[in-house]
């Protein structure tokens, strides 16, 4: 299969900015990745690292002040940035779907769950009202909502948080998208429901063959389900690799810090260490590596020059000068 066919989505050199009263905020600053059909990509990083803005750029649902200023977003080889509103609306309904960080963002409190789901199906297919209703009930059943016939008559506020999240997933899957973007789909839920929802998404992925982009700030939660993980910091990808590589061989100082700050079952006695300092101010980005002001091992070059991505293993890349230093030292040795 050619590269082009294999990748359902290819994000190339993506730059997204917000033009605010205080100046330009470059929330996404040169992001590259490919997503293959049916695969799962994880995007992790702390609050404000640009995860949601990357997702919204792909969906083309940025706030009015936001704009993709550079780069390409290829869906099956076509740059969606060249598309008109009509084509984008069709794309959002039929090809790509998003589960928002907060389910209340996309559920309208003034309409019943059923009404919203039926309208969504009818907008993107030529199903009749009855067929759309049957589809809504089918999807609610699939995501484990009990008594779906009764649920569709309820308003979002009448459902528990876990139920709302399930409704959101059902809604986003109604039109069987090729790509599902899940933006922190389980943050607001307790751990047992969290596990159920993730399992459910994997089941549905097998059934429907869709690709998933899992966005989260919690590396531990998604690791087992991702084929590849991108670690973001300050609007850039600082490290990428398989879950095993990221967990057992982290090569960027930020990823190492991230791993030290979460509990691990293989070493429960180890003390958790939070990453020192505060997240960067996007309006005042450092000249060199964005993580440099918080990095305990920073070199002189980190202050002034942004590191490129370096191959640190098979399918494993990191943008950290430390790796280059090690490389030079090993060559000299
Ligand atoms: N509408 C906006 N106007 C101005 N700046 C924005 C806007 N939306 C996002 N940003 C900025 O873009 C940066 C990235 O935000 P984003 O929402 O992508 O973070 P995130 O990684 O999803 O964080 P979280 O884990 O908190 O959801 C932040 O610095 C944020 O302040
Ligand atoms: Mg977010």
Characterize the structure shown:
The protein is α/β, with parallel strands linked by helices and 333 residues long. It is globular and about 70 Å long. The chain has 2 domains: 230 residues, Rossmann fold (3-Layer(aba) Sandwich); 75 residues, no CATH class. It contains 14 helices and 12 strands. The strands form 2 sheets. Strands 6-7-8-3-9-10-12-11 form an 8-stranded mixed beta sheet, sandwiched between helices. The chain has a 4-stranded antiparallel beta sheet with strand order 2-1-4-5. It is 37% helix and 24% strand. The protein starts with a helix and ends with a helix. Helix 6 crosses helix 8 and helix 8 runs parallel beside helix 9. Magnesium ion binds next to helix 2.
Short note summarizing the structure:
The chain has 333 residues and is α/β, with parallel strands linked by helices. The protein has helices at 3-6, 51-59, 85-95, 103-106, 113-124, 129-142, 148-151, 161-173, 191-208, 219-222, 243-248, 253-260, 300-304, 321-332; strands at residues 7-20, 23-36, 40-44, 66-75, 78-79, 96-99, 179-183, 211-216, 228-233, 236-241, 310-313, 316-318.
């Amino acid at each position: 299969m050619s590269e082009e066919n294999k990748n359902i989505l290819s994000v190339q050199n993506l730059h997204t900015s917000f033009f605010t009263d205080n100046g330009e905020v470059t929330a996404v600053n040169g992001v590259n990745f490919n997503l293959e059909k049916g695969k799962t990509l994880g995007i992790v990083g702390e609050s404000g690292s640009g995860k949601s803005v990357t997702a919204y750029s792909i969906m083309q649902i940025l706030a009015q002040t936001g704009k993709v200023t550079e780069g390409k977003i290829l869906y099956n080889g076509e740059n969606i940035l060249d598309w008109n509103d009509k084509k984008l609306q069709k794309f959002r309904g039929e090809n790509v779907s998003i589960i928002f960080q907060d389910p209340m963002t996309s559920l309208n409190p003034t309409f019943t769950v059923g009404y919203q789901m039926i309208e969504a199906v009818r907008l993107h297919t030529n199903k009749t009202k009855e067929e759309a209703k049957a589809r809504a009930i089918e999807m609610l059943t699939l995501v484990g909502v009990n008594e779906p016939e009764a649920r569709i008559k309820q308003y979002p506020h009448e459902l528990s948080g876990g139920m709302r999240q399930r409704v959101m997933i059902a809604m986003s899957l109604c039109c069987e998208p090729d790509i599902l973007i899940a933006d922190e789909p389980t943050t607001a839920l307790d751990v047992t429901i969290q596990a159920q929802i993730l399992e459910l998404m994997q089941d549905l992925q097998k059934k429907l063959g869709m690709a998933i982009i899992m966005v989260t700030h919690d590396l531990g939660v998604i690791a087992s389900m991702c084929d590849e993980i991108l670690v973001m910091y300050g609007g850039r990808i600082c490290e990428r690799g398989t879950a095993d590589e990221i967990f057992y061989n982290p090569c960027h100082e930020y990823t190492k810090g991230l791993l030290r700050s979460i509990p691990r079952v293989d070493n429960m006695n180890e003390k958790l260490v939070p990453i020192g300092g505060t997240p960067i101010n996007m309006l005042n980005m450092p000249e060199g590596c964005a993580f440099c002001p918080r990095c305990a091992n920073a070199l002189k070059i980190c202050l002034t020059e942004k590191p490129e991505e370096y191959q640190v293993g098979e399918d494993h890349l990191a943008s950290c000068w430390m790796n280059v230093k090690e490389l030079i030292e090993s060559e000299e040795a």
